């Protein structure tokens, strides 16, 4: 029904929203973004923020906070939005993603608050002191095609990404984690779709968990994820750099930066995740 | 009506909540936490999270995300909470803080989502690589009493804090900002009340803005603030360290760490703020 449904981009098709009534959107969550049994939290955040972008008058997510309640599954879901404030330069709303379980009960999956604005209306002034991460060019990094068994051996989501992991953060894959909470990769969509603010929301949660390099294995479920989109990304590959400094009490933070091909810091994000035994 | 109302602590009295009906709380916002014309965003977050702590079955805020909509004023306000999920180890809810304006219209000030748990139930394992900030002992730092005109010259909130600013991040106060986006201070409450998770929510937003050291002046309004409380703070003074790396497009992030007297990283927080001209 929308441009997104007809798009040649898998990401656009799989984040398509269908208005049911004002502020309420039906969606069909795609199994293509699964990691193990659960759908990726970044993909789900992009779907929710596509709906909020329809519900609010401003086009771009500036800051988005998501709390993850229960694991989402592929199939139908509904997003209910609620506008909190509409201002001249910013507007804010919240949203819940719901799915109906086999017993007929509607269960909330994720609750979000987001503030939207217009990235193209921002002044050009940049006084950042942040520096892009240094790591080898894509052709010297590991892609999912390099893993034993090829790309079909990995998570379903991996097939939709062009991910090139910095070899120095890949020790976990051969049973030799570095012990440092770092993960770095070149990032693109496998079908060549350029990055935009919505795909950045997915990209912040698309790399293997830093916990793997800290010697942990298994699922590291996100409790909360907040993303700041600071400028519209230029075409071309992104660099994603994640750092964990504080693994304590069974929880850890993942601090994520995304840099575009013009060396601009386009996104800063942080999540709190549980380190399950 | 509650212990808080009778407490000898100003912070406890000024964050007291009065249940109106299940999940709805009346509060009286105190002018004592004003900075200029506006009430401090950290103080307001503590009030809201005291209400959420009553509404949810778990006692401690683990991760709290607040989006600031309109400036709050001293006086009556109401907090409406909504429980999203109650689990075994975590529960999540949202809340809105509302005030009635002179024309009788109820206006939302802040919208929050928070996930609560029990800090005392966390395992003791700590594998952090984070290091406490290094700066001079309190007696070599600047207190509000050291400013020209004494403590009465500064913001109302300053009188309620025992804040000792690292001299190397105080250049702005004498017209010589360092140009680096850093702010560091020893932090306590002036009446000697020990820190707890609620006062940590206030402490993350209590220092002068890093923007001052970047040569900006004037108000730096918070758009969004997310706080992770990672463990219960030990008694004694806290160290608060704030870093800004990315001032661009009229916005900046403030990344805040709080360390307790036992050298534990008790809080990580980040806010997105507007750099007004």
Q: Which secondary structure elements does this structure contain, and how are they paired or packed?
A:
Two copies of one chain form a homodimer.
Chain A (H helix, E strand, L loop, with lengths): L2 H4 L3 H5 L2 E5 L2 E6 L4 E2 L2 E2 L1 H15 L4 E9 L6 E12 L4 E10 L5 E12 L24 E2 L17 E5 L16 E8 L7 H7 L6 H4 L8 E8 L8 E6 L7 E9 L5 E10 L3
Antiparallel strand pairs in A: 1-2, 2-6, 3-4, 5-8, 5-12, 6-7, 7-8, 9-10, 10-11, 11-13, 12-15, 13-14, 14-15
Helix pairs in contact in A: 3-4
Count of discrete structural domains of chain A: 2
Please state the second-level CATH architecture of the largest domain in chain A: Beta Barrel
Number of helices of chain A: 5
Note the run of SSEs of chain A as H and E: HHEEEEHEEEEEEEHHEEEE
Shape of chain A: globular
Percentage of residues assigned to helices of chain A: 10-25%
Write out the strand line-up for the largest beta sheet of chain A, numbering strands in chain order: 1-2-6-7-8-5-12-15-14-13-11-10-9
CATH topological fold name of the largest domain in chain A: Porin
Total strand segments of chain A: 15
> Which two chains have the most extensive interface, and how many residues on each?
A-B, 50 and 50 residues
Biggest β-sheet strands, sense, barrel of chain A: 13 strands, antiparallel
Structure class of chain A: mainly beta
Name the beta content range of chain A. 35-45%
Q: Name the CATH homologous superfamily of the largest domain in chain A.
A: Acyl-CoA thioesterase, double hotdog domain
Radius of gyration from the alpha-carbon trace of chain A, in angstroms: 18 Å
